[in-house]
């Protein structure tokens, strides 16, 4: 299961179940005695030798989902058939595990599983995928805009909107003006980002309420207040006020946000639903051009939480000039210095053999640049981007990049570019440091197999085998955990940036959203975020698939906590599907675990040889 929490309903995840404690000495094969105190409530794990009992690991009792189907992960005695709502479950693994998917109707769906004289029942409720119309007809109050207090600059578009009954007349009143809202022609709903994992990415025609909107430009600063909406339909009228207020900022007063965290999380919009931008180094300053709740819009376009900044007053927005650029070498890194008058926002774009740094709110007066001969940088090109940006593009002597860091020293931006590792000695990984992260731990179980085995146990077992295999090939190995301890994914990501290993590998096993097909989905998956990690992810995926003759789940770009560190190439590996009854038996096989660890270590050694070749 992935290192980040999934934020939509329906993924098999540890928070569905109470805490399960697993002793360090307990081998995964002993966990086949998972006992259920009641349907959907895991009471304890114990080692037993009796025949497996009929049990369901997922979904839990009274599960709710918006998916059109649901899979049932469980196990039972292999020699007897298992029925679900009277129909036999086929196929099942040699040990009796199963994972059928059944369709869901809107509302409660009752399922009964039986084997011989044993049975268990559970209810799964399918919820509508989008907003529904109130009954009796009314405005969809949760959709009234703005949902939180917003502030914009003069000339910005202010959009009023709400969901309401199709065919209704909808107006909004604000600051003495009444606006007729227009129903939008298209009502397409986008699936969640996770739909890529099940190849269900097509927009679907929405049903239910229609979206009514009207945008205008506010030219005068001041408080516009809270819009009031009115819907009229067939003689019925409904009225409601939006939760948020609207204000227009003065163009002659400047508030400046200064980033106070080590790396401020910048995004494309005012919530965590929006995509990440390059983190802003501590000390970065930018004028505030808008607010939405506790989010600030900065003048270069990115949004950041107010809690990651302090607010300063200024008579002018932060602007800088830049002249000469220089570099120096420190052990293992080349540092490039960009002297500025004020710390400005930045962004990074990596190519396969280029690294592009953009400085915003900056006007160049550059005539001279010095980049020393360091064996890493072949050439630095730069160009002004009107009206107030400058772009620097580094070309490297080798295609593989090994990491970078950004920081401000006073008002000077320091870009650190990592040198390739120097392999030494007669062992293939001697001279490297590899961080291995066994996924989950403690209360974070991860995915569960059909018999209840938590992902965290298998991930640790295989990671310890991998540690030994890497060390036998000469690597120094850093483990994020060696027991059933718990640390969050952000803590582990911070450890990668702090320890700066040569490579970072996060070891996981997979599950699916409810809409997935657990029985027919299997294989090795790899995930990367920064371009410098793409080749590593692709190579290790291909190597494991070929050498172990395993199915391929694919290689994905994904915004995960354990792929975001940029001090080293960092990848997250999903080494199989816990919820697939047949692949689960391969996952739990001790001999297969040893072979997997040895093969993965061979793959790392092969990639390092390729990536460091002249």
What does this structure look like?
By secondary structure, this protein is mainly beta. It has five helices and 47 strands. The strands form 13 sheets. Strands 13, 21, 24, 25, 28, 29, 30 and 31 form an eight-stranded mixed sheet that branches. It has a six-stranded mixed sheet with strand order 43-42-44-47-45-46. Strand 29 and strand 30 form a beta hairpin. Helix 1 crosses helix 5 (590-611). The chain is flat. The two termini are 37 Å apart.
Secondary-structure blueprint:
Elements: E1 34-38, E2 41-45, E3 55-58, E4 63-65, E5 69-71, E6 73-75, E7 83-84, E8 87-88, E9 97-98, E10 101-103, E11 107-115, E12 118-126, E13 150-152, E14 157-164, E15 169-174, E16 177-180, E17 182-183, E18 188-189, E19 204-205, E20 210-217, E21 222-225, E22 228-233, E23 236-241, E24 246-248, E25 254-259, E26 263-264, E27 280-281, E28 285-292, E29 295-298, E30 303-305, E31 309-314, E32 320-322, E33 326-330, E34 333-339, E35 346-350, E36 354-360, E37 362-364, E38 377-385, E39 389-396, E40 404-409, E41 412-418, E42 433-438, H1 455-472, E43 476-479, H2 489-499, E44 503-510, E45 524-528, H3 534-548, E46 552-557, E47 570-577, H4 581-588, H5 590-611
Parallel strand pairs: 4-12, 13-24, 32-37, 42-43, 42-44, 44-47, 45-46
Antiparallel strand pairs: 1-2, 3-6, 5-10, 6-9, 7-8, 7-11, 11-12, 13-28, 14-20, 15-16, 15-22, 17-20, 18-19, 21-24, 22-23, 25-28, 25-31, 26-27, 28-29, 29-30, 33-34, 34-41, 35-36, 36-39, 38-39, 40-41, 45-47
